[in-house]
Specification:
By secondary structure, this protein is an all-beta fold. Helix content is about 0%, strand content about 45%. The protein has strands at about 5, 10, 20-25, 35-40, 45-50, 60, 70-75, 80-85, 90-95, 110-115. The termini are far apart.
Length: about 120
């Protein structure tokens, strides 16, 4: 079955950095676009970063553009999110998911808290 396991979150001060990782299994990872999503307190889940199958096409929500970098390693079935210059408004639970596989279960997520 499909498994998505996120890791790398934590508590960080404003301006700090974190690297999130997502391990995917149970589907042909290299054949699917991948996204990172987040859900902040009292907010709806939103996508924040998108990467195409081969990594050539990348897109970000405006609020993180220039600060976050998404990447993937198809040999390891991994997708990453490097987050720089973190702000309080980046505080959220972060998830990875394949946007064209809506029926797949979501992973547990990894909590990112930005606070001084």
């Amino acid at each position: 079955q499909v498994q998505l396991v996120e890791s790398g979150g934590g508590l960080v001060q404003p301006g700090g950095s974190l690297r999130l990782s997502c391990a995917a299994s149970g589907f042909p990872f290299k054949d699917y676009n991948m996204r990172w999503y987040r859900q902040g307190p009292g907010k709806e889940r939103e996508w924040v970063a998108h990467i195409s199958i081969g990594g050539a096409a990348i897109d970000y929500v405006d609020s993180v553009n220039g600060r976050f970098v998404i990447s993937r390693d198809n040999a390891k079935n991994m997708v990453y999110l490097h987050m720089n210059n973190l702000k309080a408004e980046d505080t959220a639970m972060y998830y990875c998911h394949a946007p064209s596989r809506p029926a797949d279960s979501w992973g547990p997520g990894t909590q990112v808290t930005v606070s001084s």
